[in-house]
Amino acid sequence: MALPGLLIEYLINGALALIWLYPLLKRFGLPEINSSYLPVLALGIYVVGMVVDYIAWSVTRPLKYKIRRQIEDRYGIEMQISPRRSANLRQAKFAIYAPELSKDAAMRSSRDRIARGAIINTILAIIINSIITPYMLLTIILGIPALVISIIMWMSFEKASYSYELIAMQAITEKIEQEKYKAGESKIQSIK
Fold first, then answer.
1. For 60-84, what is each residue's pLDDT tens digit?
2. Span 112-138, pLDDT tens digits
3. 121: buried, middle or exposed (CB in 10 Å: 19+, 13-18, 0-12)?
4. CB 56 within 8 A of CB 49
5. What distance in Å separates the CA atoms of residue 119 and residue 97, rounded to the nearest whole number?
6. Is the dihedral of CA 147, 126, 52, 107 positive or negative?
7. Which residues are CB-contacts of 113 (< 8 A; sequence separation ≥ 6)?
C-alpha cells in the first residue's frame, strides 16, 4: 500500500475515533484547542488511527482467514503457501505483471482497513459513550445496529477484495504460462 493511502486510512480511522475520544477527553477537562496546535492534533488523530487499525487487525484476523478459506473453496483454489506469504507474493506479482491490478487491489485493501477500523471505533463509542454520557440506552440502541452494519460491511468488503485478488492472480498466472509457452514455441521454431 502506498504511503498516501495509509496516511488517509489512518486519518479516517483517527477521525472516526473522535466519536468516542472527544467525549472521553472532554470528561477529563479537554481545554480549548488553539489553532496553532492543529498540526499536533492531526498527528494525534493519525496515531490514534494507527492504534485503532492495529487493534482492528488483531480482532478481525481470525475471521478474515475463515472468510478467505471460504472464498478459496468457492473458487477451488488452494493456497500451497502460507496466507501471509501468498498475500505478499500476490502483491508483488500484481506490481510486476499488472500495475493497474496492483492499484485496484490496494484501493480495495484500503476500503477493507477503513471498514475494520469502523468496527473497533463503533465498539469503543458504544462502551465509552454509554459510561460517560447520560444517554446510555440511546447509545446502545443506536450503537448495536451500527456495529452490526460495520461488521457486515467489513465482511462483504473482505470477501469482494479477496475474490478479486484470487481471480486476478489466476489470470496473471495463466498469462505467465501462455508467455512461457509462446517463448518455448519461438525457441523451437528458431532451432528448426
1. 999 999 999 999 888 777 654 445 5
2. 999 999 999 999 999 999 998 888 999
3. buried
4. no
5. 34
6. positive
7. 9, 13, 53, 56
Query: 3-state DSSP helix/strand/coil percent for the chain, to nearest 5?
Result: 90, 0, 10
Domain limits, the chain = 3-191
Q: What are phi and psi of 82, to 5 degrees?
A: -60, 145
Flag whether pLDDT at 15 surpasses 70: yes
Q: How far apart are CA 143 and CA 23, in angstroms?
A: 15
Give the residue among 10, 78, 83, 73 at the shortest CA–CA distance from 42: 10
Q: Are 55 and 123 in contact (CB under 8 A)?
A: no
Total count of residues recorded for the chain: 192
pLDDT of 85-99, one tens digit each?
Answer: 577 788 888 888 888
3 state SS of 133 = coil
Whole-model pTM over 0.85 = no
Between CA 45 and CA 16 the distance in angstroms is 9
- Give the integer Cα–Cα distance in Å for 167 and 72: 10
Written as nine digits, the cell of 173 is: 498466472
Interatomic CA distance for residues 6 and 147, integer angstroms = 23
CB distance 150 to 44 below 8 Å: no
